[in-house]
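Shall we go through a protein fold together, starting from nothing but its sequence? Please make up or recall a protein chain and show it to me in full. Go ahead whenever you are ready, and we will take it from there.
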Amino acid sequence: MKFQEGHTVGIDLGTTYSAIARLTPDGRPESLPNADGRNITPSIVLLGDDGQVVVGPSFERSSQESADHIVEAVKRQMGNKNFFVVYQNKKLTPEFISALILKKMKQDAEKKIGPITNAVITVPYYFNDVRRKATQDAGRIAGLNVVDIINEPTAATLAYAWMKGELGRADLKQEAKTILVYDLGGGTFDVTVVRYTPTQFRVLATDGDVMLGGIDWTKRITDHVAEQFARRFGEDPRPDLDAMRNFTVECEDAKRALSTKDQVPLSVYYKGKTLTLQFTRKDFERMCGDLLQRTRDTTELVLQQAGVEPGTLSEVVLVGGSTYMPSVEKMLSEVCQRRPSRELRPEEAVAQGAAIHAAILEARESRGVEGLNDLITARLRSVNTADVNSHSLGVKVSSPSDRTRKINHVMIPKNSQIPMNVTQRFVTNSANQTTIHVYILEGEASDPDACTQIGDFRIVDLPAGLPAGSPVEVTYSYDANGRINATAKELTGSRVAKTEIVRDSGLNEKGIGDYELLARDYQVE
């Protein structure tokens, strides 16, 4: 994607909070404040009865609205074609709701730096192709030229190495460092091992869960408190959405307070009755121990997949607001045999890293980065990155042992260095086939139904009388930007077909265009 005239930013589109940043003329990543003067914006959208759309409303403002008018954690629904919100007789998809959040951050940041045109938007490493496209579409709907999508741990690594004064320094000793990035946000989790020198960094292994984050810890408390309330008063607040929203706000505040205190009072109110508890950090950690264990298991697995002994790590970097929980630091100290670094601001590091990545891409264009001096531009241009794919890429084929059963044959395994190009040979199933249908799957499971079908295409007009078992060559390529291409060639008659993924979910060009027009009609505050 080519850069357009105007400012360039990096955006962390988060589950619970989002942030926007730029690289200043002196080469410093800077978070851009919203209209309230804060560097992070709640990823909450309030759809008012009066047609007013508020992004990141205060609790006082949102408490005046029905809970079904408030959309939260929409990031978890990205790429879900079955999720939508009906507002003013219009279906609002996750892409559109996310676009409202992006639009709000864009217009607030423009008050400080002027027109913003280009953006790099971050995604969890474990986002599949469909979710990545949905994020890109959200940016377009918000009026942004999305020049790239970057993985959140990669962005955090860029921020860490740049702020240490190491990245892009060809004059420094090219000594490799290996760091682990533990990213526990509000709704998603990633852990990644990265090895870098001042001019080169590459991802060794990554894994994660797009349905695990701080809101799950909060939900544990909320469910516990609601159950205690029902036992005490015989009134169950859980079916009441508005009551549970108020409970959640109180429990979220208690969770945050327990990061610095051993015990906090927790009071909830429902139908004229008040329940007050003394909630301890030990209670909280015991209640959520299995959630933390899931992140521990993933951390140990990624270290194993990267071939890195814990004691050899140069640093453990914390990203995401949920890493403020003391139990996270304690667990990582045990697993990684070193205390994690808190040099980065967990809520802002990803957006700042995205801004650095955007500047690197811009510096490689002939026009360079407007306002940056030659030294900073040269540093940016000298950085080379190498990534891995977070999901296996396969093709649906007949099982060798049972031709009636379909399996996912993995062509490019997860954690393969990209760009990657793989060619393998298959055979036709039956005699006299006139077409070959190629299904492109993303996922590790052998069962195709447990994977995501991200595209398909056909070779047509095969030679007449083609016998069963005729050879077919399939090539998958995965470029450095995460774009997937597939080609199939029937070798007897040399018929060829290829695609750049025809997705079976997400918005098409018309859908994006329609939502772009709708977004212009909405006044976001």
Observations:
- The chain has three domains: 7-164+343-384+509-521, 172-342, 393-493.
